[in-house]
């Protein structure tokens, strides 16, 4: 229906209040759709849609107010009675976007803020050079008229900043999200077209005098009114404000291109003015370039910090067993030689043990692999709690674990492992081989003696701790 109404608008005669009523009617229909769609949502989730409705109502009502002010009172010079209504769109939509962003991203996102600031700064220079600055250069308008004209590009910059930040947020990116983005984009396209036409002088006035052209331009705003309502009536409207399960992607190709384009606006404006023979906004271009440079450096620093954090997480994951959270075999192979060197330097004993859950394959076959995984997690947690604070337990592979017992001889090591054996959950047991370092053997030789003791424990009936005999060096 909305598409049909917009299509019919292209053929309406410019007689009486037909065109004005049609535009306002489509705008108010969008407001009605927003209110109906919001009513279907839980009360705490209605606020952003109410704010969008307020913005659309204000802007579309401004069409009727402006036409009435011109027809009845001849008010066409800024500010007109319609301007407060037109301008009401910007703070209302910005507030709605702020609510959505806050709900989608529970944590601050510095990179997203920098991206939004970069894009807004680039377009801000265009607004200053071609819209805001010319107004004050010998223009006879009074201050209120000046402020009114400047308020429109400032409002557009506010929407650019908030829309960019919304695009950089986490959360759902279903159809309603893109309908909202499309509506905001349509408003920005329409406003930008008016600015371009105004700067074209007589050519712009001639284009606006063409019914087909003016109808097409006005339809851009009608599309914007409609898309908000479509988004709110969509079944997935509730997901728009849902918290993000994951952070948004980093620098994709589209975002990178947009950031690059925004960063090149300052040199492009400088080049255009230089080609015209007069640089009239040198200080503005210099200030914008400095701000963009600092924003790019900040973005690079944030990106580097993100890469470093990911690298640190990868290193930690590479040394951690995913199931039990204990150090894995790689971490153990790194730690054992260091522990032996410390023991040599401090002239103190050190022992290691290899633990193997008894009949684990039978447990897996009886209760299933998920239950087996739960047993491994519960057993490793119980053993860790039973051992001393200075002891280190790691998963060696499968149902096999290794324990490092610093400053422990055979007696201390046996007592620590006995406590762990008694703490084994779900009525299960383990067999363990304990070996005390002789002060000269390598890590592999020490592990081999502990492994031999483990097999002795299994052969002796399991559910026990066997202490390895003396190393071949001591025996000799």
From TrEMBL:
The record's section on InterPro entries has:
Diguanylate_Cyclase, GGDEF_dom, Nucleotide_cyclase, Rev_trsase/Diguanyl_cyclase
Q: Which SUPFAM superfamilies match?
A: Nucleotide cyclase
Q: Name one Pfam family in it.
A: GGDEF
Q: Where are the transmembrane segments?
A: 20-38, 50-73, 85-101, 113-132, 144-164, 176-197, 212-233, 254-276, 282-302
Keyword flag Transmembrane: yes
Domain (GGDEF) spans 348-470
Keywords attached to this entry: Membrane, Transmembrane, Transmembrane helix
Give a Gene Ontology cellular component term annotated to this protein: plasma membrane
GO terms (BP aspect): cell adhesion involved in single-species biofilm formation; negative regulation of bacterial-type flagellum-dependent cell motility
Entry's CDD domains?
Answer: GGDEF
What GO MF annotations does this protein's record show?
A: diguanylate cyclase activity
| Entry-linked PANTHER family | DIGUANYLATE CYCLASE DGCM-RELATED (PTHR45138:SF9), REGULATORY COMPONENTS OF SENSORY TRANSDUCTION SYSTEM (PTHR45138)
Protein name stated in the entry = Diguanylate cyclase (GGDEF)-like protein
Protein's organism: Actinoplanes xinjiangensis
């Amino acid at each position: 229906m909305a598409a049909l109404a917009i299509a019919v608008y292209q053929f309406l005669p410019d007689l009486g209040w037909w065109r004005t009523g049609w535009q306002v009617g489509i705008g108010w229909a969008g407001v009605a759709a927003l209110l109906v769609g919001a009513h279907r949502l839980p009360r705490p989730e209605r606020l952003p849609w109410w704010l969008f409705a307020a913005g659309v109502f204000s802007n579309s009502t401004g069409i009727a107010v402006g036409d009435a002010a011109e027809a009845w009172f001849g008010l066409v010079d800024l500010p007109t009675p319609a301007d407060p209504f037109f301008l009401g769109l910007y703070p209302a939509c910005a507030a709605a976007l702020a609510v959505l962003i806050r709900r989608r991203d529970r944590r601050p996102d510095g990179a997203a803020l920098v991206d939004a600031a970069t894009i807004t700064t680039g377009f801000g220079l265009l607004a200053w050079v071609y819209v805001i600055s010319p107004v004050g250069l010998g223009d006879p308008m009074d201050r209120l008229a000046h402020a009114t004209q400047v308020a429109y590009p400032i409002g557009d910059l506010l929407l650019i900043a908030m829309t960019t930040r919304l695009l950089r947020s986490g959360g759902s990116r279903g159809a309603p999200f893109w309908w909202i983005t499309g509506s905001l984009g349509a408003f920005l396209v329409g406003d930008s077209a008016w600015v371009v036409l105004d700067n074209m002088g007589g050519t712009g006035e001639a284009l606006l005098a063409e019914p087909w052209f003016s109808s097409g331009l006005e339809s851009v705003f009608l599309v914007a009114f409609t898309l908000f309502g479509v988004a709110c009536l969509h079944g997935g409207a509730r997901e728009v404000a849902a918290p993000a399960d994951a952070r948004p992607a980093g620098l994709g190709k589209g975002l990178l291109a947009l950031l690059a384009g925004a960063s090149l606006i300052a040199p492009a404006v400088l080049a255009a003015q230089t080609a015209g023979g007069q640089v009239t906004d040198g200080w503005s271009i210099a200030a914008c370039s400095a701000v963009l440079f600092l924003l790019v450096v900040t973005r690079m620093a944030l990106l580097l910090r993100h890469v470093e954090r990911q690298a640190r997480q990868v290193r930690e994951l590479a040394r951690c067993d995913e199931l039990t959270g204990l150090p894995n075999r790689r971490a153990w192979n790194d730690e054992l030689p260091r522990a032996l060197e410390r023991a040599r330097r401090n002239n103190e004993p050190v022992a290691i043990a290899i633990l193997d859950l008894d009949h684990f394959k039978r447990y897996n076959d009886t209760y299933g692999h998920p239950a087996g995984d739960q047993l491994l997690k519960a057993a490793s947690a119980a053993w860790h709690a039973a051992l001393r604070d200075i002891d280190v337990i790691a998963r060696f592979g499968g149902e096999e674990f290794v324990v490092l017992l610093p400053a422990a001889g055979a007696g201390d090591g046996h007592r620590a492992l006995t406590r762990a054996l008694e703490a084994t959950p779900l009525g299960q047991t383990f067999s363990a081989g304990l070996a005390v370092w002789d002060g000269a053997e390598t890590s592999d030789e020490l592990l081999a003696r502990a492994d031999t003791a483990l097999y002795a424990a299994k052969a002796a009936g399991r559910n026990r701790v066997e202490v390895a005999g003396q190393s071949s060096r001591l025996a000799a």
